[in-house]
Design brief:
It is a single chain. The protein has helices spanning 23-32, 47-60, 81-84, 96-103; strands at residues 36-40, 65-69, 86-91. With 110 residues, the chain is of the alpha/beta class. Strands 2-1-3 form a three-stranded parallel sheet. Helix 2 links the parallel strand 1 (36-40) and strand 2. It is globular and about 40 Å long.
Length: 110
């Protein structure tokens, strides 16, 4: 998020390869470089599991610094700290409606 300068948007569309050549995820990791990748699991009901899986994949691709933006319910509040030092933000799969309804109107959206 550093200064909120414009960056590159990489739209994946889901079902990317997490086990083979991982070309798409390899490109995301390359864009992160030595920075921090924030993995957002807001679209899923199994966020901790997704974070664990993607953390393993991105570490194997050389990403050393990872953070996780995950929560169960909007009412519990959303901790924006994982986003503050992020070089890149990666949204995992799930319901796009859940992302917008959970994050819309919160400090994360801002």
């Amino acid at each position: 998020m550093r200064g909120l300068s414009p960056g590159t948007l990489i739209v994946i569309g889901g079902a990317e390869d997490k086990e083979g050549e991982r070309q798409i995820l390899r490109e995301v990791a390359a864009r992160v470089g030595d920075g921090t990748l924030c993995i957002v699991t807001a679209a899923s009901n199994v966020g901790e599991d997704l974070y664990r899986d993607y953390r393993k994949v991105f570490r194997s691709l050389g990403v050393k610094k990872l953070s996780h933006l995950g929560y169960r319910k909007r009412e519990e509040g959303i901790d924006v700290r994982p986003l503050l030092d992020a070089t890149a933000v990666f949204f995992t799969g799930g319901s796009q409606l859940k992302i917008t309804s959970e994050l819309g109107g919160t400090p994360v959206e801002e």
